[in-house]
Design a protein that fits this description.
By secondary structure, the protein is mostly helical. The protein contains 15 helices and no strands.
């Protein structure tokens, strides 16, 4: 296990190096020079330096006055020292802005992820064990509706019904009008109330695919020879399903679950933007729109790290749920 983890970690570092190089190259090859736009804005401030001086300073600061490979090596050196530069959009260090917004995205992602597992896996198992029954058809319709509904459409529908028509929730934002007048507990409840619709959106649009995947794999396992043998030996149906069949169903599910873990930290860009939730997804969207190269590079690199970590976790979990798998 240790040898496998070390080997995969080293391989992930190599992959990350090339991914970062691709990201840096794409940023350097953008048709619009955001450095020139930033220099123009800074030069227009009262008592500021000239446009040319700001342009030279920004090019030197972000190593844009060299060729792509040299600039990338210098940029990687800065990143390894924990220096990702200052955000052009938010005028604070990139890491400071990241620490400010990552918490709310993690809370939203974690709650939605747990609810997704609690809802999707049991319903998928029920649909498989009661194939072609009314319960199976109802669950399948619910799953297909969740898969088919675009995030922006479902979020807008929730806002129309529960915010505009019923008035139960705010249209957007994370805090109410009287937030500063509330107690600590009241502030927490107010923020939680504002997160209900975004979390419902994340759960509904993502639960369908996991539910269908669970049902498909459970049906495949239930038709296996060893399941028929277990039933022939007189084992109870619940033991056959939850002890023998369900554990083998977990093996392919680990791939999806492990791949979903990076989503706990990466934020939900569309959902956060629609509800104006100041998480990492909404913040990265604002940074990209404004041409904030330092923050955009950091966010995409961060996403690459999360993806590689999710793949490594999936491989390790294979051996946990299935002793037949030997990572060596």
């Amino acid at each position: 296990m240790k040898k496998f983890i070390v080997k995969r970690t080293l391989l992930s570092v190599v992959i990350l190096f090339f991914v970062c190089f691709i990201i840096y190259t794409l940023m350097r090859c953008l048709p619009q020079s955001y450095v020139e736009s930033m220099a123009m804005q800074l030069s227009q401030q009262p008592g500021s330096k000239s446009y040319g001086e700001w342009l030279d300073q920004l090019n030197a600061q972000y190593h844009l006055d060299t060729n792509i490979f040299t600039g990338f090596i210098m940029q990687m050196g800065e990143m390894l020292r924990g220096n990702f530069g200052d955000s052009w959009k938010f005028t604070v260090p990139v890491l400071d802005k990241f620490r400010e917004v990552i918490g709310i995205s993690f809370v939203m992602g974690a709650i939605a992820f747990v609810l997704e597992l609690i809802i999707a896996i049991p319903l998928g198992v029920i649909a498989a064990t009661k194939q072609y029954s009314r319960a199976d058809y109802a669950i399948s319709v619910f799953a297909l509706a969740g898969i088919s509904l675009p995030t922006f459409f479902f979020a807008t529908l929730l806002k129309l019904v529960f915010s505009v028509k019923l008035g139960w929730f705010e249209l957007a934002g994370l805090m109410g009008r009287n937030y500063n007048q509330l107690s600590a507990w009241g502030k927490m409840m107010d923020m939680g109330w504002h997160l209900v619709l975004p979390i419902c959106t994340l759960v509904i649009v993502s639960v369908g695919s996991l539910m269908r995947y669970t049902r498909t794999n459970m049906l495949e396992v239930l038709n296996a020879d060893y399941i028929r043998t277990a039933r022939a030996k007189g084992l109870s149906e619940s033991k056959v399903i939850y002890h023998h069949a369900f554990r083998n169903t977990l093996i392919p599910l680990v791939t999806i679950i492990g791949g979903s873990l990076p989503g706990l930290f990466s934020g939900a860009l569309i959902t956060e933007t629609l509800f104006s939730i100041p998480g990492i997804g909404y913040t990265s969207y604002q940074a990209m729109i404004a041409g904030d190269i330092p923050f955009s590079m950091f966010y995409m690199t961060f996403m690459a790290v999360l993806t590689l970590a999710g793949n490594l976790i999936s491989d390790i979990l294979y051996a946990v749920v299935d002793p037949r798998v030997r990572l060596s």
